[in-house]
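Quick look at the format.
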Amino acid sequence: MPKLNPPLTSAKCIRRYENNPILTPEDIPYISEAVYNAAVIKRNGKYIMLFRNDYNWDWELHTYKPGDSSVLGIADSDDGIHWNVRPKPFEAAIKLKSDEVTRIYDPRITEIEGELYICFAMDTNHGLRGGIGRIIGDFEDLEVLSLSVPDNRNMVLFPEKINGMYVRLERPFPVYGRAEVAKRMGWGHDRFDIWISYSPDLKFWGESKLLAAVEDFPYTNDKIGPAAPPIKTDKGWLLITHGVDLDTTRGKNGWEPKWQKRYCAGVMLVDLEDPSKVLGIYKKPLIAPEVGREIENGMRENVIFPCACIKEDNDVLKIYYGASDTVTCLAETTVSELVDLCLNGDDE
């Protein structure tokens, strides 16, 4: 296993589930090669997972074959650890595919005023779009409410209106303009950041502004983005993020000939009444790829990609994350510990 520089470690308050991963391709009753980046919601004491299920991998070209390559699977659990996968994927998402739309993936679920809403990424022939939809019934259908212009993704919704407005986090891809700034500043590569936008109805979005930039997270040099939907605390909104560092000297780290990126989870805190106001950012990784399927036997190794958090009654926070773009894993911590990291930066 190649050594990654600089070496990064997870925060001491992170406790990985001892029997990770909690979901693998072997658990899926239909074709599957990777299950990861899963959304999880808890309702009426039961857990529901909506996960990205990838297949149709071309081992010679080290990419997915043309055509169908991903669906959204559904699983249920009594404890948030052991999962029963439903026999069929989320058919309403499959129906969104067309000659123009090639893939729906990376779901995030938020409950707002008793309704379940899903944010998702949509690959099209003319760019990557971020979508928002309302789940109807027990995943019987999906009402699409909003689709962004290209290129935007990693959208998450706040679980309640703030000052009468819906709020979302997102990560646009300003490839040309941001890359030029990065080159001029000597920063290097893409530099994609976290933005915040507002809406009166979940359809029309505006008042967008930069929330946090790559340079605000010292362990990243390539991109950051929102991960799980925000968690409300008495100190502010707790945001789990992902961050990427790129090293062009890295070689083969997975199935592809060369994989030069490393993904970590991070955490930050924003104001309850004005979520565009940052109260604190933990300057080290919350979860770094260190063990098991996070660093070996994966499609793209050294990847931690959180997509869901469940706040339990006893202050415990379950964090669900994709490991090496291949399997789904679970870690636990407490909300209090994460708030302390953001405000005090102390992991002793």
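Next, a different chain entirely:
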Amino acid sequence: MKIAFFDAKSYDKSSFEAYSSKSGIEFKYFETKLNEDTARLAGGFDGVCVFVNDTVDAAVIDKLYELGVKVIALRCAGFNNVDVKYAKGKLHIVRVPAYSPYAVAEHTIALLLTSIRRIHKAYIRSRDFNFSLSGMTGFDLHGKTVGVIGTGKIGRVFIDICKGFGMKVLAFDKFPAKEIDNGDTVKYCSLDELFEKSDIISLHCPLTEETHHIIDDNAIDKCKKGVVILNTSRGALVDAEALLEGIKSRKVGAACLDVYEEEADLFFEDNSQHIVEDDILARLISMPNVIVTSHQAFLTEEALDNIAETTVENIKMILENGQCPNELCYKGGNTEDCKNGKCF
């Protein structure tokens, strides 16, 4: 079994090689991203392995199908970059629905603490031997209300961490996990109530037509003055222009972003020697109350190991048996989700 591995990084190679040597799968690593122009590189391969910023639209799917590719293996949970409906009947698409939920949840809380306790500013100051505390006042998390949009595995781990800080949780999800609602410290509510009552809002939901720009100017208008917005899920959940205006108007007190709507040509690469043409991102990064990290929330040793193991197993199951529980159905959910009426 031969797989063309696109958008390959050094950390990908080390984690995947540990499993490929035992599975009979041969990976060919390409640093370039998959798109209509690079799809030809998949000629002679049984499948392709792609990540969040690879393009898997109708044109790419047609080219891969013509080349005899049988499977597209996503080494991630999100699939908003894939035309799943168009691929039906042409290619199998598998994903990693869960890896280490702790990796993303812990990174989210790390961003929050860094922001509200000004740790990033203190680090820079102390390197210049500036030990002034002026402008460094933060606030306690204890007793604050956090709104969590999306209560899948990552959202639930994040909720557990917040409970440990003594925070109250308001949750929203299309498919509520009723067992986590205790009617007191953790409660499900409407989206409007979550916006109105939360001191902090954290996004942990997939990107769908329904959740696209779930944080927009209307949502921000409903929020408390000084709300802190966290996004470690998918960039397009947040309307970046609306967020920028919210920060400028002082309605948004701080924003912590590990993802960005137009990140595809920027994140995962060293752009320090280039002029960034994305004015909105440049202005967000320039704001003193905004922290941007480069889609690294998933990047722990444990998560990389989980991703490699699951991806390799997904590929083997499809190529050997023609089916896999982690295959995406044409509606966008896992095949198992569709069987249980939970396809999103």
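The first strand starts at residue 2 and ends at 5.

See the schema section for token definitions.
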